[in-house]
């Protein structure tokens, strides 16, 4: 893999299968009480897709299904034309990391964790893995922090390291659950720019977020989700007050200023733009 860019191999370029294909998915955690009902959508390679919905709408459940961790009750989930299963070609950045912040683990250690899906259980990272991890840290502007303890970093810096860990995995598909929640504005801007660049290079990204305005400006397609698919398509088609209000079950006003979108919550709510 080149250290200055992310490229597609010949096998990936040759295939015509969508990156993600979900057909009639119904699933949940207890029989008789599905979280997702009859979900269908398709994501082409190289697309940057936002998943929008209120808390409890099933976004994290959808990601678990895409990761092959939650089997369908009905329907099917295909990744690269194959049934979803734990797969090193799929990198996941959860909303909340399970790292023990009191454990003395360095930034480089965390980034090297991205190599383990490729190495298997009994192989340890070698020189090439370390070089790839350092390259990944360089891509997110954190290589100078490689020997710093992860617990010493700010929230925005930690998020950059988790992105580096995902890059070190060398995936084709990125799944990110609220990647800019609780981070500073420069980190938010950086995360979305990185995702845009990766998708231009042929990778695919599915991002659960509450940031409607940034999705409207930066993303190729939007999935509005509230236990079922409310709408799926380009932002300019999906972002209507009727569909957003149906998704979030609240009164939202959509204001447009050129290519900027401001979402106002309620009659006297706060305006948010990107």
Structural description of this entry:
- With 274 residues, the chain is of the alpha/beta class.
- Helices cover 31% and strands 27% of the residues.
- It has 10 helices and 13 strands.
- It has helices spanning 10-14, 59-66, 107-112, 116-119, 127-139, 155-168, 185-200, 212-218, 235-238, 241-248; strands at residues 20-30, 33-43, 48-52, 74-79, 82-83, 90-93, 173-177, 204-208, 221-225, 229-233, 252-257, 260-265, 271-272.
- Strands 6-7-8-3-9-10 form a 6-stranded mixed beta sheet, with helices on both faces. Strands 2-1-4-5 form a 4-stranded antiparallel beta sheet, with helices on one face. Strands 11-12-13 form a 3-stranded antiparallel beta sheet, with helices on one face.
- β7 (173-177), α7 and β8 (204-208) form a beta-alpha-beta unit.
- α5 packs across α6 (155-168) and α6 (155-168) packs parallel to α7.
- The longest helix is centred in the last third of the chain and has 16 residues, at 185-200.
- The protein is globular, with a radius of gyration of 19 Å.
């Amino acid at each position: 893999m080149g250290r200055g860019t992310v490229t597609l191999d010949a096998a990936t370029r040759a295939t015509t299968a969508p990156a993600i294909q979900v057909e009639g998915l119904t699933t949940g955690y207890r029989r008789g009480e599905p979280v997702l009902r009859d979900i269908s959508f398709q994501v082409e390679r190289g697309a940057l897709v936002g998943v929008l919905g209120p808390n409890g709408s099933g976004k994290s459940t959808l990601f678990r299904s895409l990761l092959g961790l939650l089997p369908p009750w009905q329907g099917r989930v295909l990744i690269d034309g194959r049934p979803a299963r734990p797969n090193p070609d799929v990198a996941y950045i959860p909303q909340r990391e399970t790292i023990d912040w009191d454990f003395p683990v360095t930034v480089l250690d965390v980034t090297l964790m991205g190599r383990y899906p490729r190495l298997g259980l009994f192989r340890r990272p070698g020189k090439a893995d370390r070089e790839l991890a350092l390259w990944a840290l360089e891509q997110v502007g954190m290589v100078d922090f490689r020997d710093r303890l992860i617990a010493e970093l700010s929230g925005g810096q930690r998020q950059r390291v988790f992105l580096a860990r995902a890059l070190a995995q060398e995936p084709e598909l990125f799944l990110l659950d609220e990647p800019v929640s609780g981070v500073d504005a420069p980190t938010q801007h950086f995360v979305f720019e990185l995702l845009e660049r990766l998708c231009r290079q042929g990778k695919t990204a599915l991002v659960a977020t509450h940031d409607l305005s940034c999705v409207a400006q930066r993303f190729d397609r939007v999935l509005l989700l509230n236990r079922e698919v409310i709408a799926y398509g380009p932002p300019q088609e999906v972002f209507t007050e009727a569909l957003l209000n149906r998704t979030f079950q609240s009164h939202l006003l959509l204001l447009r200023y050129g290519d900027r979108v401001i979402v106002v919550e309620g009659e006297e709510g706060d305006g948010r733009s990107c």
